[in-house]
Amino acid sequence: MTTTDWFMANHWWWRPGWTVSRRFYTWHLAFADQSDVHRYVGAHRDVLTPLPGLDLIPDQWLHLTMQGLGFTHEVDDYDVQAIIRAARSHLAALPPLQLTLPEVIVTPEAVVIPAQPAQDVVDLRRALRAAIAAVWPAVPESADGFRPHLSVAYSNSTGPAEPVQQAIENVTAAPATARITTADLIVIHRDRKMYEWETVAARVAGAVDPAVTKRP
């Protein structure tokens, strides 16, 4: 099936449990300080800006979603601290990620860039899941079906995918690279049709800050 055969759908439908003002604990990788990623995403943002139906993601909120914990009102602060401590142990031996973002693709709800090598990101996620398993008898979310990617834009309505595909095919920018040394535990929300967050704890060079910030 080509993009001429299907439509993009609204990404912002309310998934189970989500409402306005609800917050969620999740681990992710952030790209706020990755200038080469900003260059590459910016080149695609430029060609997508004239198109209707897309929410373009600013550099501040570029991210790669890793592993959720749960809604903040359902997770005890003691467990959060324990998971952070376990993450320090499980992530300490992992080297920084050396990622390539080679190709922008159109999916039914977003414009995304798959991260490579995917297995390195999968290994980091596996370590995060092991840290959670050290505290909880069951780890949220499935271990399977994880496809690491960075989103460039979200679809906010129903519309044809072909104009989006044609726009990104006109971009000639070289692929981006990123060196990621931090996996962040964040509190995220989607109240304004954008994923926005506050950082709870970060793993930097093998260390996790045990301090948990006040929930927004």
Structure description:
There is one protein chain. By secondary structure, the chain is α+β, with helices and mostly antiparallel strands. The protein has one domain: Cyclic phosphodiesterase (Cyclic Phosphodiesterase, Chain: A, Alpha-Beta Complex). 25% of the residues lie in helices and 31% in strands. It contains four helices and 13 strands. The protein has helices spanning 35-48, 77-91, 118-133, 162-169, and strands at 7-8, 24-30, 54-56, 63-71, 97-101, 105-106, 110-114, 149-155, 159-160, 176-180, 182-189, 196-204, 207-208. The strands form four sheets. Strands 4-2-11-12-13 form a five-stranded antiparallel sheet, covered by helices on one side. Strands 3-8-7-6 form a four-stranded antiparallel sheet, covered by helices on one side. Helix 2 (77-91) crosses helix 3. It is globular.
